[in-house]
Amino acid sequence: MSYKPLAGKDDFDEVFINSSSQSVSSENFRALILITNDNFRLGMILPKKNIKLAVHRNYLKRIIRNLSIDVFAQSKVSLVVISKKRIIDFKRDKLRREIKTLFLNLNKKLNEKNNCIFN
């Protein structure tokens, strides 16, 4: 299953401004999710200020995309992932585990709040 990207200010504002959005944070990332009537939608904010090398930004985008599809593909949600601070120690395995844990915690939080709508 694939996803549709969040494109434009209006799509992102829908997730940021809506009071029913859920959020979970980790050391380097914050994820916000909103239950919608659309299929799974994904947006990422990984600024150059926080992640200097394009290779690292592209790697994170690929990992976030793949892991989010694994966890949320069957859900009708909009997901936004934001890097919180500058990532100095770019260890691929550590960041992959952190993102996976972030998504699993977010899914668990949604399950508790919404009576197990998601897997």
TrEMBL record:
Sorted alphabetically, the keyword list is: Endonuclease, Hydrolase, Nuclease, RNA-binding, tRNA processing
Organism, by scientific name, is SAR86 cluster bacterium
Q: Per its UniProt record, what Pfam families does this chain match? A: Ribonuclease_P
Alphabetized Gene3D superfamilies for the sequence: 3.30.230.10
Give the protein's function: RNaseP catalyzes the removal of the 5'-leader sequence from pre-tRNA to produce the mature 5'-terminus. It can also cleave other RNA substrates such as 4.5S RNA. The protein component plays an auxiliary but essential role in vivo by binding to the 5'-leader sequence and broadening the substrate specificity of the ribozyme.
Q: Which GO terms describe its molecular function?
A: ribonuclease P activity; tRNA binding
This one is known as Ribonuclease P protein component
Is the keyword Nuclease in the record?
A: yes
Q: Which Gene Ontology terms describe the biological processes this protein takes part in?
A: tRNA processing
